[in-house]
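TL;DR need structure tokens for one chain.
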Amino acid sequence: MDFLHPQLERLYAYWNAQRRGHVFPLREDIDPLDMPYALGNVLLVDVEREPAIRFRYRLWGVNLTTDYGQEMTGRYVDQLQPPAFGARVQQQYLATLTANAAQLHKFDDIIDGRWFMHERLLLPLARPEAPDAIGMILGAIFRTPRDAGR
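>> reply
TL;DR here they are.
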């Protein structure tokens, strides 16, 4: 994966090490204290499969609330605003399930009149009863103003 943010590269390496030979680590294998470099930007998503696939934020980092102007803990991805943004994010989570693998997404967006480059890493976590199936997704989002460094 070609990371722009070193925090995401570190998070990916941590997730990969926690796999310990398995397809995915379990939620219990992940310790938030091991990732202070990313904690405010971390999200944890439950994958609900009944009656249909839906994604619910168990954790939405404090920096994400500040960056996106919405607290999403306990809410569903399809409740993200604006609706077109929520639909795009929903598709990225579905792509993670379809690929059955970690996913890195880069995208531009305008927030409060400023143009940002976003980088979202989505890391599958196994279901205890089905270690090859995704039960949760650990992720992180970092953004950079497009005019940074100019």
